[in-house]
Amino acid sequence: MDFSLPRSFEVLRRTPATLQSMLGDLSDPWLTGNEGPGTWSPWEVVAHLTHVEATDWVDRTMLFLARDPAGLFRPVDREAGFSRFQGWPVSRILDRFTSLRAGNLETVNTLVQAEALGLTAVHPALGTVTLGQLLATWTVHDLNHLGQIVKAMAKQYGEAVGAWRRFLPILEAP
Predict the structure, then answer these.
(1) pLDDT of 69 strictly over 80
(2) At 153, which CATH number?
(3) CA quadruple 144, 133, 123, 77: dihedral positive or negative?
(4) CA distances (Å), 169 to each of 78, 116, 149, in order?
(5) Which of 49, 63, 133, 138 makes a 20 to 30 Å CA pair with 126?
């Protein structure tokens, strides 16, 4: 499928409600369990999503719109949300995420026209990238983290399912 900003917005607009429905009133064991060392819990994923929503997607979009092809992205601290939102219940973080996302979608919808999708900037690790690629990545980033949350939650019952485990490939996925 070719990139389409309206199709991306279909996903991006739904992510806050999806997260709210999945996580909004769950008990801490569901929210703090992870897949093991070096993996994130659902709470950490929501904190990450909220942090990058505040600091990354629109800021980077603006870099492209400045029309400086040598514009260089600043690095993202992927775990900064863990300390930024420490002590916050997931419901409060989700409220913040929902508000930020609504504002960001409005900003991008207002500022980005189809002809801007080919604008370039420089990513420190990836080299030259386009605005269209960034916005497609925003969409897939959401989907990736939704999958990450589902896997972390499923693996909390990895042993409890007993012999049915062989029918549940999510429990074997790395």
Answers:
(1) no
(2) 1.20.120.450
(3) negative
(4) 28, 41, 15
(5) 49
Residue 39, both tokens:
């993996």
CA nearest neighbour of 22 among 149, 138, 171, 142: 149
| Domain count along the chain | 1
- Mean pLDDT over all residues of the chain? 96
Task: State pLDDT tens for residues 11-48.
Answer: 999 999 999 999 999 999 999 999 999 999 999 999 99
Report residue 174's pLDDT band, with 50, 70 and 90 as the boundaries. Answer: confident
5's CB contacts (< 8 A; 6+ apart) are 108, 109, 112, 114, 117, 135
Which structural domain range is residue 94 located in?
A: 5-171
